[in-house]
Task: structure prediction
Amino acid sequence: MIKVSLTPNRIHVSGHANTAPYGSDIVCAAVSAITLTLISGLENIAYMSLYESVEPGNICIEWQTINDTGKALIDTWFLGILGIAEQYPVIKLETDNE
Result:
């Protein structure tokens, strides 16, 4: 199970989909690819200052302030996560939209 937690200042993605052998799991690859692309976009397109931790099976992204471009990138990333979760029900979503 992949757990995706989204709060107003943090994204945390953890776990493994376990839909295929390690290194061949397209669900893990898809979630990792769009999440790593999000980090790059937040830094290089939205010019946001981030705290990031990237380890196998565990990605955490935190920020103090968000701009409109950063919000658009996160919203787009979230649509991608929802699309993957719709096709592969091994993703648990948790949001806190305070």
In short: The two ends are 25 Å apart (CA to CA). The longest strand covers residues 2-7.
